[in-house]
Amino acid sequence: MMFPEYDVIVVGAGHAGCEAAVAAANMGSKVLLATMNMQTIAQMSCNPAMGGVAKGQIVREIDALGGYSGIVTDHTMIQFRMLNRSKGPAMWSPRAQSDRMLFAAKWRNMLEENEQIDFWQEMVTGIVVKDNRAVGVQTGMGIEIPAKSVVLTNGTFLNGIIHIGEKQFGGGRAGERAAKGITEQLIELGFESGRMKTGTPPRVDGRSLNWEVMELQPGDDNPSKFSYTATPTLEKQVPCHIAYTNPEVHELLKTGFDRSPMFNGRIRGLGPRYCPSIEDKIDRFADRDRHQLFVEPEGWNTCEIYVNGFSSSLPEDVQFKAMRKIPGFENAKMFRPGYAIEYDYFPPTQLRPSLETRLVKNLFFAGQINGTTGYEEAACQGLMAGINAHLAINEEEPFILKRSEAYIGVLIDDLINKGTNEPYRMFTSRAEYRILLRQDNADLRLTPLAQKLGMHHLEERLDRVDQKQADDKAIQKYFRTTSIHPDEVNAYLAEKNSSPIKQRQKLHSILTRPHINIADLSEVLPDLKTYLSSFSQEAIELSETNMKYEGYIKKEQEMVDKMNRLEAVKLAETVDYHGISSLSAEAREKLTKIKPRTIGQASRISGVSPSDISVLLVHMGR
């Protein structure tokens, strides 16, 4: 036989597909990764960056669960910044510029090093379904490859159409063809589908730009990293730059509005609200006379530049003329214009919390097929789908993260309970327990869970988690038991406009004051500096956050415990909601469609009110 029966076939080798393949393989499944082009594995189709607000937390969570996105980013980044340092630690978000070519190459190397993963380069045109169960895939050449489960991570390729002004052509990405067949088959099986749109900006020649007139945006002085493993630290960095549009740019762009597929109705899919195209920004924010653009290098050894913030589907001549009116871009040469891409997705309310479809057993969806946008959102869904595909074929309970355990839990819970009709992007504001879900503690939250799952190669990670917890305990103990004399600290407190102390006080009570931090304290207290010298910066920062935000953390944990009581009340899939007359009509409809597993999940479905939850609790004899 040309192909054995695989445990898991992953269709698509973008960020979701790569994470799905390694997750299933590292749990012991034999995996086939099918892609239309082996040269574009882990391609950064849009901006050459990982992380950002809330997205950085997701990359750290992927890493803590044994995924590879953080490791690949650390090995291939050219700049690192911790965003939102001026805000509270719940908002701190790591972000890195990556070398686009190295990123894809590193991912491919890591996949090829895994002996549990095989590859097949060809378009998959359908899923083989028997007795309502996915049992393989069908390819364009008519080959049937058997499998116990299938994970679809098709990105923007399902019936993708690229729009540039009045031109439109089939494609899943610039220079690559669209995938046909899967949507039509899924609709035939009873799935509901929709259309979405996303866009990308022009790429330009960095040699043709005048960098002197743009604002410099360097990386952090002491760059951190994403992975909790021993990945390399960034020694040198490449700066980004900031440029601005102006009224002249806007007027030129408007000349193409009548030929814009965004405005003349040719694009039916909704685009990402939080990453609008430049024409959308000008139209929606007509009072703004300038918009910020981030001028991002694509790597160490290339002159290709990504103009972040100038995403467009206007005719290429309009894009070019308008771009040349941006200060610094007067002589810009374009490598390729921006474009919009419209593609099929499947509303995620058709999925179980494990990302398995309700209609077909052992068939999983991850990434943009579920209506999300962003590499990080796709990668974490791939990871979860890969884990759950492995568990499903071994008849084990699915792995589901709670909203209080991870941003990944928030994302999947939002998708399956609320659905989305526009590309879903993660924000810190979507997480109600964000003080618990910080980027600095993802390993403490999730690595022990990954170990229980049976994920391979976690021994070193678990040792690090134990060490970090022990260090945190030791540092906190030192602060709670060490007293300091007024003479040692009052001059520093006066500098910080903080009241002086009149008698000896514990270090802990000084640290919990506003504007006081461990770094400054250790400069004025030599004994503290000596004590802390044996700890990592990571452990010191973790302890500082835990001590300063202790009250908030405790309060949030109490809310979680309260919510978990509702999560403990299970609902059978067989409940006849139409038979419970006291429920509102909308609740009956939504509960029947989504079939929540618990009262907690039911309470988060849009359209199910608190009074509906009370009715359910009464119905269950609670």
Task: Summarize the model shown.
The protein is an alpha+beta fold.
| CATH fold name of the largest domain | FAD/NAD(P)-binding domain
Tally of individual domains: 4
Kindly report the name of the CATH homologous superfamily of the largest domain. FAD/NAD(P)-binding domain
Number of strands: 22
Count up the helices.
21
What's the CATH architecture name of the largest domain? 3-Layer(bba) Sandwich
Principal-axes shape call: globular
Overall pLDDT metric: 94
Report the structural category: alpha+beta
Helix content: 25-40%
What does the radius of gyration come to?
Answer: 26 Å
Model regions low in confidence, pLDDT < 50 over at least 5 residues: none
Strand percentage: 15-25%
Can you tell me the CATH class of the largest domain? Alpha Beta
Largest sheet geometry: 7 strands, mixed
First-last Cα distance:
56 Å
Explain what you see.
This protein has 622 residues and is an alpha+beta fold. The chain folds into four domains: 306 residues, FAD/NAD(P)-binding domain (3-Layer(bba) Sandwich); 136 residues, Elongation Factor Tu (Ef-tu), domain 3; 94 residues, Arc Repressor Mutant, subunit A, CATH 1.10.10; 52 residues, DNA polymerase, domain 1, CATH 1.10.150.570. The chain is 36% helix and 18% strand. It is built from 21 helices and 22 strands. Strands 1, 2, 6, 7, 8, 9 and 20 form a seven-stranded mixed β-sheet that branches. Strands 14-15-16-17-13-18 form a six-stranded antiparallel β-sheet, with no helix packed on it. Strands 11-10-19-12 form a four-stranded antiparallel β-sheet, with no helix packed on it. The longest helix has 23 residues. The protein starts with 5 loop residues before the first strand and ends with a helix. The mean pLDDT is 94.
